[in-house]
Amino acid sequence: MKPLQISAVPMACVVGLILALLVFGCGDGGGEGEDGDLADGDGDAEEDEAWNPDDSDSDACSGYGYGGECEPSTGLDCTQDPCAFGSCVERNGVGVCECEAGYAGELCDRCAEGYAPSGLRCIRADACLDYPCVWGTCLVINDEPVCQCDEGYAGALCDACAEGHHVENLRCVAD
Questions:
Q1: Is the dihedral of CA 75, 80, 82, 85 positive or negative?
Q2: Is 110 inside any structural domain?
Q3: 29 and 63, same structural domain?
Q4: 62 with 102, same domain?
Q5: Which residues of 114-152 are buried (b: 16+ CB within 10 A; e: fewer)?
Q6: Which of 46, 73, 75, 50 is nearest to 62 (CA)?
Q7: What is the b/e burial string over 76-111, where b = at least 16 CB atoms within 10 angstroms of the residue's CB?
Q8: What is the pLDDT of residues 77-105, one digit of tens each?
Q9: What pLDDT does residue 132 have?
Q10: Do the domain assignments include residue 160?
Q11: Residue at 54 is within a domain
Q12: What is the mean pLDDT of residues 12-28?
């Protein structure tokens, strides 16, 4: 498995900030006009002119995998290693991510159906449902259920007494 690309997180924040500034605007000397409309700094109030994704002249989304009209670009740049939990391959001249088991999304950056996040990974959501740890807790390690036994218990399902313990009143107690 490829390690998580921590550098992607700050870039997402930068993209979010840029989009927020484009949508909500930056101060350009303007403010609110007499009737509450935005003013552009020349004294004339105008209607809110926040960025509009339908505006064909807009280049606000250029870069970051999007074209001028905020439509996803055609394919990924595989030289940038864009797939979080997968491999980038070219199909018909277009870069796409092939996700590892348990991952989905254009960049393999979210859990697939039937999987759930566990720390920085996706694990089978039902891995412990059919794995009863009698006297312990089920953990998922390398996508497999494993019992972590309570003190005094042992066995794959924590259903036996550990060394130095014996059964007393249907429980394992220290010798």
A1: positive
A2: yes
A3: yes
A4: no
A5: ebeeeeebbbbbebbeebebebbebbbeeeebbbebeeb
A6: 73
A7: bebeeebbbbbebeeeeeebbbebbebbbeebbbeb
A8: 999 999 999 999 998 889 999 999 999 99
A9: 85
A10: yes
A11: yes
A12: 43
Q: How many domains is the chain partitioned into structurally?
A: 3
Q: 3-class SS at 156? A: coil
What pLDDT score does 164 carry? 97
Q: How far apart are CA 161 and CA 135, in angstroms?
A: 10
Residues 15 and 38 in one domain: yes
Tell me if the pTM is above 0.85.
no
In three-state form (DSSP H/G/I as H, E/B as E, the rest C), the secondary structure along 95-153 is EEEEECCCEECCCCCEECCCEEEECCEEEECCCCCCCCCCCEEEEEECCEEEEEECCCE
CB 172 within 8 A of CB 161: yes
pLDDT band at 144 (very low <50, low <70, confident <90, very high): confident
> Which of 31-35, 66-70, 155-159 ranks highest by mean pLDDT?
155-159
The answer on 60 and 37 residing in a single domain is: yes
Q: Structural domain of residue 99, as residue ranges?
A: 74-123
CA distances in angstroms from 48 to 24, 31, 51, 59, listed in the order given:
9, 11, 9, 18
